[in-house]
Design a protein that fits this description.
Blueprint (H helix, E strand, L loop, with lengths): L1 E7 L4 H10 L3 E12 L2 E9 L1 H13 L2 H4 L1 E6 L6 H9 L10 H10 L5 H20 L2 H10 L3 H13 L2 H31 L5 H5 L13 H19 L3 H8 L4 H13 L3 H35 L1
Antiparallel strand pairs: 1-3, 1-4, 2-3
Helix pairs in contact: 5-8, 6-7, 6-9, 6-13, 8-9, 8-14, 9-13, 11-12, 11-14, 13-14
Length: about 300
């Protein structure tokens, strides 16, 4: 269930209310005339089931409310209302399958900001994964996968491609193009620093690492895992379920591959660096391909519904 807070210019309020009262998936409509001060207008509140979210938001934007007023969306975790139940029954489809495009665009757009926090988190994750590679410790690899923020730009890239948002695509590509090289450089420097302190050495990289050497040995399964992880990640994102998304983050080797490449570069092991770079590219391509395909299927299925 979504809660809408609409600030409507007085001349548009009747059309807004009419739209919401006609929509079978909308309920609990409240109008507070003249309540808004900035921007000035009437305050209209309503609950809308997720299945009807995109059509209602598109219709409101078609009225120009987002330009002359304001539209805010909040997720409602619990709604004890017979009226809300009737609205959910009347709307086509299921809430778990519904895609609220404006919500997804906003959510993924926030993840593509080339902020200091994003760069720091990606660099920290890569450093942790680099240490995990040298120690052959999967627990550090898993921790690095969870810390890494790279799925945000990848998801935004998929949404931008499907929704034909060139600006979003450029921002996502910029975040990835700047973030990963910077993280690799930081990891190389960190590896040199740890080596100088005697905490790690080249022998650790060249020794047998049965638990983590898969990171730089890509094969057909690398694509398969990345592809299905991309599907699961996009489904968890569109359904606003965080649990499956965490599983996705620890199933693909994007950050560990970048870390393995960095450590191999630091110690001058080109064949391992090349294998890790290939693993990284395979996973990135698989996730984006799967994400775009998933969104296209969801859009097609929802239009059919």
């Amino acid at each position: 269930m979504l809660h809408l807070r609409v600030i409507s210019p007085p001349g548009d309020t009747e059309r807004v209310v009419g739209l919401l009262t006609r929509e079978a998936g909308a309920t609990n409509v409240v109008v507070l005339p003249g309540a808004a001060r900035e921007p000035a207008g009437d305050l209209v509140l309503a609950d809308v089931v997720r299945e009807a979210g995109s059509p209602v938001l598109s219709a409101l934007q078609g009225l120009g409310i987002h330009e002359r007023g304001s539209i805010a969306i909040e997720n409602v975790d619990v709604s004890l209302s017979r009226s809300a139940e009737r609205a959910a029954d009347a709307a086509p489809g299921l809430s778990g399958d519904a895609v609220v495009w404006d919500e997804i665009e906003h959510k993924t757009g926030q993840e593509t900001e080339l902020s200091a926090t994003f760069l720091a988190m990606l660099a920290i994750a890569t450093v942790i994964a680099g240490i995990g590679v040298l120690l052959d410790q999967p627990i550090l690899i898993v921790g690095a996968m969870v810390v890494g923020p790279e799925f945000g730009p990848l998801a935004s890239l998929c949404v931008g491609i499907v929704r034909r948002r060139p600006h979003a695509v450029r921002r996502a590509l910029l975040a990835l193009a700047v973030g990963f090289p910077l993280a690799v450089v930081v990891t190389v420097l960190t590896t040199w620093g740890l080596d100088a302190l005697g905490l790690v050495n080249k022998g650790m990289l060249l020794s047998e690492r049965p638990l983590t050497d898969f990171i730089w040995r890509p094969d057909a399964l690398s694509w398969v895992v990345g592809f299905f992880a991309g599907i699961a990640g996009m489904l968890s994102l569109t359904s606003s379920k965080a649990g499956p998304l965490i599983g996705v983050l620890i199933s693909v080797t994007t950050v560990p591959a970048a870390a393995n490449a960095a450590v191999a570069l630091a110690y001058g092991v080109p064949h391992e660096a090349g294998g890790s770079a290939l693993q990284l590219l395979i996973n990135l391509a698989a996730i984006v391909t799967a994400g775009v395909a998933t969104l296209l299927v969801l859009r097609w299925g929802w239009r059919r519904a």
